[in-house]
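Meet my pick.
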Amino acid sequence: MATWIKEAITEEQRDEAQKQVRDTVEKLLEDIDKRGDTAVRELSKQFETGFPQRIPAF
């Protein structure tokens, strides 16, 4: 007999999660629009490790 280990989330939970993601991304993009490269650098430091001090030009 099969045993359910994990069940899918409800449509309501899925919709709420999608709304939270959308709201977060909109805020990040607005910040980038307003502050440009400074916002991108700060976000990179927040979400990445090993942020380079200097990015080479190509």
Observations:
- DSSP finds two helices and no strands in the chain.
- Residues 8 and 14 are 9 Å apart (CA to CA).
